[in-house]
Design brief:
By secondary structure, this protein is of the alpha/beta class. It is 39% helix and 20% strand. The radius of gyration is 27 Å and the shape is globular.
């Protein structure tokens, strides 16, 4: 397990040093990790919790780390000595991987001595932001595939080894059936998938000889890449010859793969040729710069493709290459008293919600479909036996009274007083949670373009606390 303790921004360490010099190192702080609204999707699929847990579990400063920090000249000996016994002793509640989260809802709530909570900011954002981004993109891609299989093929275009490994993991959580990335498959329990490249075909005297050699190698898993020379005049006819040969020997060929050209046209022509040759059970796979928008277009054109390999545009989240995740302090607990904190900005989207919080998802009893989320203070409970009014977080005159509903707290304890109390599921189990969570929403909220806006409200108490702090801040500025 890698020690990533120094994978932090330098100002986290300088703040820790300042807290230490001020005697505030044991003051308990709560931080929320959440994301701000972004254009492409109205919700995210949470991913990265397992790697966040690994990072926190192994949080400590080695002798080499301390000597390196000494070499910067920024810290005194007392602080560096204090770092030798550094470990996480706080508590964390989080949404499990595969959960559906909306903007401003904490994906993770960290309560710990302020130096510990502060240090983790950059690493937690790095881990959670990336995997959540890719899981969300994979959800969009698999939704656009409309039941066709989707394989993750992004290894060679990912921004480095970690992005490839953990991006493939996140893509599976988001809905991909597997990956071409063998190391990621080994690490996370997938069956890697893939066939051959154009180089295989070009390394033989002819395309037919290349196909025959591959068929001899994998007679019961023969998937042939047919676009090396000419898809319809050479590739598909030669594949049919090989499939005829395999079937005569009692084997069942898998199908063909298209990797270039007009995928809609080529797939329809190839399907017709395969069917007429008696190979209607052979599948058509396709790759080549595919994303959800290409998939929607292919569906409109009635393309005959059974499985998609999606690489560059998913592993890099091409249209939205970063998630606006942030990590903000929301409470200080000192001398037995809680002091709610919030960031106030001229930009409304950057104003944060104060206090230690939880989020309830409200479901309609008759359909088990989600109605709204309510961000509450942590000690609030929603009583299912009484009516409940949800109110717009800004335009408070907009409200709706609920009567036939139940509420679900979205968080799970991960660490309690420094002890890990959570067992991580497999990535495939998290994928199942993604599907289960998505099933709890009406289709209008899940459509890829112009989705219906899902209600995420603030409880009356949280809203009032927020307004009070804004008012107090204005008074202090005037003074």
């Amino acid at each position: 397990m890698r020690n990533l303790t120094l994978m932090t921004d330098f100002y986290e360490l300088t703040m820790m040093y300042g807290y230490f010099l001020q005697g505030k190192q044991d003051e308990i702080a709560t931080f929320d990790l959440f994301f701000r609204p972004f254009e492409e999707s109205n919700f995210c699929v949470v991913a990265g919790l397992e790697q966040a847990i690994e990072y926190i579990t192994n949080l400590h400063f080695t002798d080499d780390d301390i000597e390196y920090l000494r070499s910067t000249g920024a810290f005194n000996d007392a602080f560096l000595k204090w770092l030798r016994d550094f470990k996480f002793t706080g508590s964390i509640r989080a949404m499990e991987e595969g959960s559906i989260a909306f903007p401003n809802e904490p994906l993770m709530i960290v309560t710990a001595p302020i130096c510990q909570a502060q240090l983790m900011e950059a690493a937690l954002l790095n881990i959670i932001n990336f995997q959540t981004l890719i899981a969300t993109k994979a959800r969009r891609v698999t939704a656009a595939a409309n039941g066709a299989g989707v394989l993750e093929f992004g290894l060679r275009r990912a921004q480095g080894p970690d992005a490839a490994i953990y991006g493939a993991r996140a893509a599976v959580i988001g809905g991909c059936s597997s990956t071409s990335n063998v190391l990621s498959a080994q690490m996370f329990g997938f069956q890697p998938k893939g066939t051959h490249a154009h180089s295989w075909v070009m390394s033989f005297p002819s395309e037919l000889e290349a196909f025959m050699a591959y068929a001899d190698t994998y007679p019961d898993g023969c998937l042939l890449l047919v676009d090396t020379y000419d898809t319809l005049k050479s590739g598909v006819p030669n594949a049919i010859k090989v499939f005829d040969y395999l079937k005569s020997k009692g084997h069942k060929p898998m199908g063909i793969r298209l990797d270039s050209g007009d995928l809609a046209y080529l797939s329809k022509q190839a399907r017709k040729m395969l069917d007429e040759a008696g190979h209607s059970d052979c599948l058509i796979f396709a790759s080549s710069d595919i994303d959800e928008y290409v998939l929607m277009s292919l569906r409109e054109q009635d393309a005959k493709i059974d499985v998609f390999g999606v690489g560059t545009k998913m592993i890099t989240s091409h249209t939205t290459p970063s998630l606006g995740g942030v990590y903000k302090i929301c409470n200080i607990h000192s001398d037995g008293v809680d002091y709610p904190k919030m960031k106030i900005s001229d930009n409304p989207v950057k104003i944060t919600n104060p206090g230690v919080k939880t989020v309830y998802r409200l479901f309609e009893n008759s359909t088990n479909k989600a109605i709204a989320d309510v961000i509450c203070l942590a000690d609030e409970e929603i009583d299912n036996s009484k009516s409940y009014t949800i109110t717009h977080p800004v335009e408070r005159w907009k409200s709706m009274v609920l009567t036939d509903f139940y509420a679900k707290d979205l968080y799970t304890d991960i660490f309690v007083d420094g002890k890990l109390v959570y067992t991580c599921p497999t990535a495939m189990q998290s994928q199942a949670r993604t599907k289960q969570n998505l099933d709890g929403f009406w289709e209008e909220y899940k459509r890829l373009q112009r989705p219906h806006i899902y209600k995420v409200d603030l409880s009356d108490r949280l809203y009032q606390l927020r307004q009070n702090l804004i008012s107090e801040s204005r008074k202090s500025v005037v003074k």
